[in-house]
């Protein structure tokens, strides 16, 4: 072979390799066929940060997901990012200059700080770090999507679980309610074979598409409050105690016990909307951001409309856990139509992790009447 021919062959081979590599890179950078239309629509709406407009099939990081959530919140409230930040500052004048750089120990990104301020994200471990470069699981994505809806003003209407996934037992207890909601809203779907894959990874295109579906498929008519007029923690406590109840219906609330902790204000008492509905037992946990949890919501009843009172409420020595017992001398009611099926008499022992709001049934033991 002549030298010129050999040289030309080498050049052509190199060009071919470059073309193949460039084509492969472009294919990896582009959105998958199933996601292309929705990704393009999300970008046109303006809530996809420029740095996330590419490399769509790669796994999204916690920091990138948080940024997407903040941009979506600004879009939904018809704010620019700067206007959203200013609104947050005006809502909480106690914030000191430079507070954005001190929220987490491992990032000074102000977007992460505002994502935490509007309760879209939580820290890891003791809450002081965020791990912005870490990956996000599907169940974590579900929780952050639901929190984003709350930040945008979405209420929590009663739902019926639309699908029970075959791997439901793999969903963490702290994520189960949000996975229920996100599946019911058809914002997130399974991965095939009726599996949710709660610990699976999440890609950029999946995140963008699910935020678009959050906008399109969720009923926003139940919105109770927006970020600018969300009550403070003190206002929410007062609202519950005064009977305003912020968000469902006017009622009276009789306080039995109050516990103030660094993670929230605990209010144990009875709510009522009149003799027709009777009273119900609640243990509200009012969080520092002004939202609240009903820690007694999933405690089973001993009648069609009634639940027993909690007993022996106490905090752990480090203040991170709440414990209480619920006794069922007649057994938990299992069948609500004929009121005929009951569990054997039991004492239920509960633990609440106040750092996450997770309620865990520790054990059930046979009920023994006090002598």
Describe the structure.
- The chain is of the alpha+beta class and 371 residues long.
- It has three domains: 30 residues; 188 residues, no CATH class; 134 residues, no CATH class.
- The strands form two sheets. It has a four-stranded antiparallel sheet with strand order 1-2-3-4, with helices on one face.
- The termini are far apart.
- The relative contact order is 0.09.
- About 4% of the residues have low confidence.
Q: What overall geometry do the principal axes of the alpha carbons give?
A: globular
Q: Provide mean pLDDT, rounded.
A: 80
How is the main sheet built? Answer: 4 strands, antiparallel
Helix content: 25-40%
Given helix and strand content, the structural type is alpha+beta
Count the helices. How many? 9
Residues in β-strands, percent: 15-25%
The number of distinct β-strands equals 8
Strand arrangement, major sheet: 1-2-3-4
Q: Give start-end ranges of low-pLDDT stretches.
A: 18-26, 222-226
Domain module count: 3
Q: What is the radius of gyration computed over CA atoms, rounded to a whole number of angstroms?
A: 25 Å
Give the end-to-end Cα distance, rounded to a whole number of Å. Answer: 105 Å
Order of helices and strands: HHHHHHHHHEEEEEEEE
């Amino acid at each position: 072979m002549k030298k010129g021919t050999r040289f030309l062959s080498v050049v052509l081979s190199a060009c071919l390799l470059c073309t193949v590599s460039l084509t492969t890179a472009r294919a990896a950078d582009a959105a998958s066929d199933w996601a292309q239309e929705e990704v393009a629509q999300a970008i046109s709406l303006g809530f996809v940060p420029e740095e996330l407009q590419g490399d769509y099939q790669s796994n999204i990081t916690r920091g990138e997901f948080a940024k997407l959530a903040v941009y979506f919140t600004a879009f939904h409230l018809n704010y620019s990012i700067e206007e959203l930040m200013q609104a947050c500052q005006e809502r909480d004048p106690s914030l000191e200059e430079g507070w954005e750089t001190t929220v987490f120990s491992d990032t000074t990104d102000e977007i992460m700080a505002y994502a935490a301020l509007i309760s879209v994200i939580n820290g890891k471990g003791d809450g002081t770090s965020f791990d912005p470069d870490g990956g996000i699981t599907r169940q974590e994505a579900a929780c952050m999507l639901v929190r984003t809806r709350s930040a945008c003003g979405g209420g929590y209407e009663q739902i019926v679980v639309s699908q029970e996934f075959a791997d439901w037992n793999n969903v963490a207890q702290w994520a189960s309610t949000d996975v229920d909601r996100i599946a019911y809203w058809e914002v997130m779907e399974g991965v095939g074979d009726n599996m949710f894959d709660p610990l699976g990874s999440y890609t950029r295109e999946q995140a963008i598409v699910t935020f678009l579906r959050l906008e399109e498929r969720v009923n926003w008519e139940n919105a109770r409050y927006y970020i600018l007029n969300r009550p403070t923690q003190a206002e929410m406590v007062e609202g519950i105690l005064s009977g305003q109840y912020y968000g469902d219906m006017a009622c009276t609330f009789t306080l039995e016990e109050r516990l103030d902790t660094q993670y929230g204000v605990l209010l144990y008492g009875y709510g009522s909307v009149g003799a027709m509905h009777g009273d119900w037992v609640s243990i509200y946990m009012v969080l520092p951001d002004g939202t609240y949890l009903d820690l007694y919501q999933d405690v089973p009843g001993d009648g069609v409309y009634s639940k027993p009172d909690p007993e022996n409420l106490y905090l752990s020595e480090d203040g991170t856990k709440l414990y209480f017992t619920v006794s069922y001398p007649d057994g938990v009611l299992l069948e609500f139509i004929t009121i005929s099926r009951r569990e054997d008499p039991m004492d239920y022992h509960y633990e609440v992790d106040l750092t996450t709001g997770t309620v865990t049934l520790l054990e059930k033991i046979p009920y023994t009447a006090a002598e």
